[in-house]
Amino acid sequence: MATKTKKIAKKKRLGWHFLPDTMQLTNLDNRKAAVGKTLSIPAKQTPNCCFVGMHASDLPHQAAQFNKGPVLCRVEVWGNVDTRGNDKFCGRHRRVLWAHEITAKDATQLAKRLHQRFDPTSGIAISSFLKLAASMATDLFDRVILELAERKGLNAGGKVRVVPVKPPFDVKALLGQLMQRVIRTETDIMRDVGDFYHFDNGAGGDLFRDVVDAALATDKVIVVDGFTSDGRSGYVLRGRRR
C-alpha cells in the first residue's frame, strides 16, 4: 500500500522592506534583490529575528526605522517564519513583489503631507529622512506611503492588495516597544498602543494601569511618579540602565 505524503502549505506573510538604491542586501550580505526574485538563508540556519533570516515589517513606518535605504519594497516572507520581533518578522525566504525608489521629489511631497520638511540640498540621506518622519507620525506616515505605493502601481492588476493589520493589544509586546525609549509618559504610551495595536478606546485609563502593573512586575523598567513635559503630573516610565 502506497504511503501518502502529507503536503505542508507554505504560509506566506506580506510585509514591507527598504533596500539601498543598489538593491544590494546589507549586514555583510552582498546579494542583490530584484522584483520577482527569491532570496533565502542557508538551509542549515534557522530564522531568528534580529539575528538570522530574511526580514520584513508589517507596517511601512516599522520598516523605515531600520534606515536601510530609499527603495520601498512590498515583499512576501515564508519558511519557518519567526514573529518574535516587535517591529519585524523573518523567515527562510523573501521575494520582492514590487519596488519603488523614493526620490528627492517623492520625499519632498511626503514631507508636505506629513507636515514636516525635507530639503534635498541639505545632504541628508532620504533613508534618514524616512526614519525620522516615520518616528514622528507613524499612522500618517503609513497612510501616505500606501498612497504613494498605489500611485506607483503596487496594486496594478489586483495582484497585491495592501491591508494594514494591527495585532490585538498585548501588554508584554507593548513593554518591548517601551524598552526602546528612555522616558515614557501616559500620553506617549497610549499613543503607542494606538499605533501598534487594536484596542478599545474607551478603556484607555484601565489599559494604562495594566501597562504600569506589567512594568512594575519586571526588572527592566522602573515606574516613578513625575511630570510630563508640559508640567502635568503623571507616570513616567524610565528604562532601567545597567
Furnish the topology, listing elements before pairings.
Elements: E1 13-19, E2 38-40, E3 54-56, H1 60-64, E4 71-78, E5 89-91, E6 93-101, H2 104-113, H3 126-136, H4 138-151, H5 171-178, E7 183-185, H6 186-196, H7 204-216, E8 221-227, E9 233-239
Antiparallel strand pairs: 1-4, 2-6, 3-5, 4-6, 7-9, 8-9
What does this entry look like structurally?
With 242 residues, the chain is α+β, with helices and mostly antiparallel strands. The protein folds into two domains: 155 residues, no CATH class; 69 residues, Arc Repressor Mutant, subunit A. It has seven helices and nine strands, in the order βββαβββααααβααββ. The strands form three sheets. The protein has a four-stranded antiparallel β-sheet with strand order 1-4-6-2. Helix 3 packs across helix 4 and helix 5 packs across helix 7. The chain is globular. The N and C termini lie far apart (63 Å). The relative contact order is 0.12. The N terminus is likely disordered.
